Amino acid sequence: MLTTGNSFSGFSVDDIEAARVFYGESLGFAVKLNDMGILEITLPGGAPSIAYQKNDHAPATFTVLNFEVDDIDRAVDELVAAGVTLERYEGMPQDDKGVLRGKAQNRGPDIAWFLDPAGNILSVLSN
């Protein structure tokens, strides 16, 4: 087993200032740009993550952050009110709000996806 004292996730972005505004203002998370130009993000529940600028950034083709919520409809409404657009994926049975309703079909959580300014995929989900 790996012996470690702490852990955190990290991902790249193409514009650190746009990421600071999105994660800090649109999503309302605690953010801080450190002395090395890395954005330190405190996720809900206190977990740390970092975003770093990468000049040849390519958006992740998978979900980099999942946010568990009690009420998916409220979460989606809050995101839309903050100016966030929900993603729609061809072949996915998403409703008018962009939510895939997995719970009603006994096929996993209710989930909706959205992008950060760098094109990284994020989600809100309700089990």
UniProtKB/TrEMBL annotation:
Transmembrane segments: none
Highest taxon, organism lineage: Bacteria
InterPro entries assigned to the protein according to its UniProt record, in alphabetical order: Glyas_Bleomycin-R_OHBP_Dase (IPR029068), Glyas_Fos-R_dOase_dom (IPR004360), VOC_core (IPR037523)
Domain spans labelled VOC: 5-127
Listed Gene3D superfamilies: 2,3-Dihydroxybiphenyl 1,2-Dioxygenase, domain 1
UniProt-recorded name of the protein: VOC family protein
Organism: Herbiconiux daphne
Lineage: Bacteria, Bacillati, Actinomycetota, Actinomycetes, Micrococcales
